[in-house]
């Protein structure tokens, strides 16, 4: 069974690129390879549903909240597996809300826009609904790509954010250490 199964106007969406996957890489600060269970939310290919704007046929539920299929986000979401694969050698930013991290990749978009990828990272906790996949790989961390969408202003994505190397972030999360914002509140 596919992780996402959605149809628009009777046509199944191609979402195979957003199937759960495992990212493995050696983390120097831990002295071993870590395996990260990576999943994508439907926010990577949907926007907030507005009945006055969106057709009911484009409605996709996110738990109890209605979202709408967005062709541009869906098209851009094909970049996400490569962006995830690039993380071991990248820096990311802790957002000002201290809830998510953002990765700003060099994805060429029209009009000078950028494509930030927002994600959560935490220690791995087994999901009993996915026992078969989890038995195949021993994960130490969980990553959920919460959203990714084009924006006009790089500063908007980085407002109040704190830069951290992704491998250092993984080591801290694995060890249960806090990642602190450089901003004082």
What keyword list fits this structure?
7-stranded mixed β-sheet, single chain, alpha+beta, 185 residues
Outline the structure in words:
With 185 residues, this protein is of the alpha+beta class. The protein has five helices and twelve strands. The strands form three sheets. It has a seven-stranded mixed beta sheet. Strands 5-7-6 form a three-stranded antiparallel beta sheet. The protein has a two-stranded antiparallel ribbon with strand order 1-2. The model has no long low-confidence stretch (mean pLDDT 88).
What does the secondary structure layout of this molecule look like, with pairings?
Blueprint: E1 7-8, E2 11-12, E3 21-27, E4 32-40, E5 46-48, E6 59-62, E7 65-69, H1 71-76, H2 80-86, E8 91-94, E9 101-104, E10 116-123, H3 131-136, E11 141-148, H4 154-158, E12 162-165, H5 166-175
Parallel strand pairs: 4-11
Antiparallel strand pairs: 1-2, 3-4, 5-7, 6-7, 8-9, 8-12, 9-10, 10-11
């Amino acid at each position: 069974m596919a992780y996402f199964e959605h149809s628009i106007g009777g046509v199944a969406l191609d979402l195979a690129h957003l199937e759960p996957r495992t990212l493995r890489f050696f983390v120097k600060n831990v002295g071993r390879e870590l395996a990260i269970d990576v999943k994508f939310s439907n926010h990577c290919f949907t926007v907030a549903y507005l009945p006055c704007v969106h057709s009911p046929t484009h409605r996709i539920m996110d738990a109890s909240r209605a979202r709408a299929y967005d062709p541009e986000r869906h098209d851009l979401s094909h970049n996400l597996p490569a962006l995830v694969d690039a993380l071991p050698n990248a820096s990311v930013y802790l957002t000002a809300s201290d809830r998510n991290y953002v990765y700003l990749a060099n994805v060429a978009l029209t009009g000078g826009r950028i494509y930030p990828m927002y994600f959560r990272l935490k220690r791995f906790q087994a999901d009993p609904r996915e026992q078969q996949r989890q038995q195949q790989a021993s994960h130490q961390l969980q990553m959920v790509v919460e959203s990714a969408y084009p924006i006009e202003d790089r500063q908007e994505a980085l407002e109040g954010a704190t830069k951290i190397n992704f491998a250092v972030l993984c080591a801290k999360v694995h060890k249960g250490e806090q990642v602190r914002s450089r901003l004082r509140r």
